[in-house]
């Protein structure tokens, strides 16, 4: 969280400069954990100097897994799967992070934030020069294509942070031949971010959750039996 706060402060400093704004792309993958290719992951682990025995164990763990679906009394046929990491497995977020470790930004004005399958592309733009932002988007699309990851353009959204007075409408972002929806706010890693970088909406959300937790505690205290004095 501290690194995220430092990032917000750097954005505010940038937005204080004349003619500056930021575009934030919240990327959504289609079935992210299910698309990991064991052979590609093994090669990436080798490049990260992971011991051979560990690489072979992880590859064996992800290869030729057996799976079936049960709905009430109905059970599907057993299927053998050699792609992806099991949903709900504690290793899956780590394996996906290692799988996408080589996906980085190549331009200093563009930050690529990743937390498991939550990926965000942030560009600090000056003088309306968006070439770096759009170039990094193309690089991301190309990298995903080469690594068997599918971007969901319908669930990917963008937020524009612009404090300029009366700015001209900005050109839309096209991802995989589909226009990206622009949003006023977005919930990222448990924090609600707004295009004005205000915290009121996030504070209201946290306050509401706290009140709900307090209600359950109060209700539990009312129904609990009184303690008896055994002394």
From TrEMBL:
Superkingdom classification of source: Eukaryota
Pfam families named in the record: ALKBH8_N (PF09004), RVT_1 (PF00078)
Residue stretches making up the Reverse transcriptase domain: 1-193
One Gene Ontology MF term: methyltransferase activity
Protein name stated in the entry: Reverse transcriptase domain-containing protein
Native source species: Hemibagrus guttatus
Lineage of producing organism: Eukaryota, Metazoa, Chordata, Craniata, Vertebrata
